[in-house]
Amino acid sequence: MPSRQNLLIISLLSLFLLYLLISRTSSSSSTTNPHIPSSNDEKRGRPAFKQRLIAVGDLHGDISNAQKVLRMAHIIDDQANWVGGEDILVQTGDIVDRGAGALDIYRMMQKLRGQAEGQGGRVVSVLGNHEVMNAIGDWRYVTQDDIKVFGGTKRRQEALAKDGWLGAEWLANYSITASVPLSPHPLSPKLSFTHGSLRPSFPNLTPYPDAINALGHSLLTKALTPPLNPPYPPNPYSGLPKGHTREEAELYAEGGPLWWRGLAEREEGQVCEWARELKEKLGVRRIIGGHTPNFEHIVSRCNGSVIIIDTGISSAYGGVLSALEIVYTLTPVDDKGKDDGHRQDPFMVDDSLPASDYESEPVESIGAKGELKGRYIEREEVHAIYEKRKKWIALEEREVVL
Ligand SMILES: *[C@@H]1O[C@H](CO)[C@@H](O)[C@H](O)[C@H]1NC(C)=O
Ligand SMILES: *[C@@H]1O[C@H](CO)[C@@H](O)[C@H](O)[C@H]1NC(C)=O
């Protein structure tokens, strides 16, 4: 039997060990991100609004890695069903070519789009240069197995045509570029997603994203209206569909949003200047794209203003599995600090703004989260998710009045 004194010593010792354990785990989690300001979440209430967004780059015909990435990001389960709830999934194009699994990925995306909508989530699909190459008959990177999976060249062309299942899906649910708001509030920050790089001097940049997407839709409609261009190879390259306009040709040209690599490849100073110009012209907070792979990691440039998410996910490249994660929250601020900060925030609403602008927002579009009105701490956490680690890219916090 241990004596009373021993019991006392043992309990003090265990308390001390417990303390050590707790202080070590909390300090080790903060030392992994030394440059990130510590959050004082405990001092605040719960967020009134939370939106999670996952973005995934080029998938190039690899259904197995595509599913791994979406599972890793907690967007799908083992049966490839949507478990993302109200999350937003963005895929930045180049699902096709270099592998045999494109058909499966397009089918999966189609299914997820419906399932996501059923749960209050959303799937945003962007076209890559390889989708448009397939549409215009440039099949240089189409594998023989891919043609087989579709049931041969003729069946593949029928699927791609504007009345085929895939052509119709591209025309209805894919666009060249997307501007995605992080909350349903009209003043919400938006993120821009395009397969390649948007060029500040691109002639049809604005009104964004409609000008670019209208051109994309008309070019795609021409390309997918039967008879489709005979595939090259073995036939000679036909180029853009008959009757295309000069503006449509510019959209598909080397300096257009499907092919240009400027934001990924030019030197930092130039890219930051372009990023500033683009953010202002497009009214977005970040410019996110794929197309130019880095096989080790997601690339953040100019402090997260530009993020390139192509990491060669397909086994055709053997890069790293990755997804970009953005967690956006609005947490109400209690009113006692009301008069001590005179910071004029660019996001601040002028009182002269007619209240009806946001009060008319249907309540179900913000779900059970209620109406967004008042003072909030807006927090946007940006991470790269990999198989075994998660890495900070940016964290922005500011006070906003909605
Ligand atoms: C586009 O997506 C919606 C779901 O959001 C789906 O109901 C519709 O069938 C899709 N359109 C085509 C043409 O596939
Ligand atoms: C970079 O972004 C962080 C927030 O993510 C901000 O605190 C910092 O001031 C920015 N740095 C520059 C040089 O803009």
From TrEMBL:
GO terms for molecular function: hydrolase activity. InterPro entries: Calcineurin-like_PHP (IPR004843), Metallo-depent_PP-like (IPR029052). Pfam families: Metallophos. Keywords: Signal. Residues 335-345 have a biased composition (Basic and acidic residues). Residues 1-27 form the signal peptide. Coiled coil: none annotated. Residues 52-293 form the Calcineurin-like phosphoesterase domain. Residues 335-360 are annotated as: Disordered. PANTHER family: SHEWANELLA-LIKE PROTEIN PHOSPHATASE 1. This is Serine-threonine protein phosphatase. It comes from Kwoniella bestiolae CBS 10118.
